[in-house]
Specification:
Elements: H1 2-18, H2 26-51, H3 69-89, E1 94-96, E2 99-101, H4 103-124
Antiparallel strand pairs: 1-2
Length: 131
Amino acid sequence: MKYYLIIFIIFILFLNCTVAKADWTKTDTAYQITYSALHIIDWGQTRSIAKNPLTRSEMNPILGKHPSVGKVDTYFIGTLVGHTLISVLLPEKVYLLGLKIRPRRAWQGIWIIIETGYVAHNFGAGVKIAF
């Protein structure tokens, strides 16, 4: 687990250096931090589910009903890195038929809503965070 966290911290530091793009805003950073915090809470809850296979089962079809903690860790690190990379690569805004559309903000916002739902559902079911 510590190994994964070290890799993630190095990745974030590297990303911070490479995201010096002119269109990345403080709001984008706030959205990404919000998403990441919710994702990490969901990760901890999913680890708790994995550690208690007799009383809990996972609903994510990619992980399966009773994933190992290692599979959970790999999945959540991969999806956190992937989400961050997509956020960086998406443009802040594009104009389509005269309308200003914000693909990055939409991507981040939709995933914040999704993660909020997962976390709230798990808390409602009594799932603890276990790192």
